[in-house]
Amino acid sequence: MLDAFSKAVVSADASTKPVADIDALKAFVASGNRRLDAVNAIASNASCMVSDAIAGMICENQGLIQAGGNCYPNRRMAACLRDAEIILRYVTYALLAGDPSVLDDRCLNGLKETYAALGVPATSTVRAVQIMKAQAAAHIQDTPSDARAGGKKRIMGAPVVEDRCASLVAEASSYFDRVISALS
User: Fold this and answer.
1) What is the pLDDT of residues 127-155, one digit of tens each?
2) Euclidean distance between CA atoms 102 and 140, whole angstroms
3) Based on the number of CB atoms within 10 Å of its own CB, is 71 exposed (0-12), middle (13-18) or buried (19 or more)?
4) Ranges of each domain in the chain
5) What is the DSSP letter of 31?
């Protein structure tokens, strides 16, 4: 896994020149606290995000929990929850590093082929990832929905000005889109 600094050094070393894009590194450092807050918001809510995403996926396709469905019996449901948690964890690693290589190398490499061999329906998995993507955006912006969360809603702090975290929402969304693309 390469963070922004490692990537800049490796690139400069390969071209035998000094690090050229200092402004990009300054911007990465400047966004550090917001980046950590975004990762913390996702990690603090990960178990709820995963269970809600899987529940939403199942609500849209009840056949998954019927006999013969991909979330039946309990061990398959547990595997589904585990896989969604792993995907979410690697998205947060990529967001923290500002680089998708860890997501690509350790999570997405061969995922589609593995799921196809196991008979896991890609459309259902994609739907769960889409739900997690929407949840992550809400948590990064610190704007979870009252209607959906009710008394269990967890706000990390004072709401962040939306334009300040728009780039982090876009970056996190791009990582979720990578997962969706890898599964499609």
Assistant:
1) 999 999 999 999 998 766 666 555 655 55
2) 21
3) buried
4) 1-30, 33-183
5) T
Per-residue burial over 114-127, b = 16 or more CB atoms within 10 Å of its CB, e = otherwise: ebeeeebbeebbbb
Write down the mean pLDDT value for the chain: 86
Q: Which of 148, 139, 143, 124 is nearest to 173 (CA)?
A: 139
Structure tokens belonging to residue 79: 């595997």
Maximum CA pair distance of the chain?
61
Whole-model pTM? 0.81
pLDDT in tens, 6-17: 778 888 888 888
On whether the CB atoms of residues 110 and 101 are closer than 8 A, the answer is no
33-183: CATH topology is Globin-like (1.10.490)
Q: Please give the Cα distance from 51 to 57 (Å, whole number).
A: 10
Question: How many Cα atoms within 13 Å fall on the side-chain side of residue 146?
Answer: 0
In whole angstroms, what is the distance from residue 13 CA to residue 6 CA? 10
Tokens 């998708």 correspond to what residue? Answer: 100
Q: What is the rounded distance in angstroms from the CA atom of residue 79 to the CA atom of residue 59?
A: 18
Positive or negative, the Cα torsion across 106, 111, 117, 120? Answer: positive
pLDDT tops 70 at residue 156: no
- The residue that leads in pLDDT, 156 or 168, is 168
Which tokens belong to 178?
Answer: 């990578």
Report the distance separating Cα 125 and Cα 147, nearest Å. 25
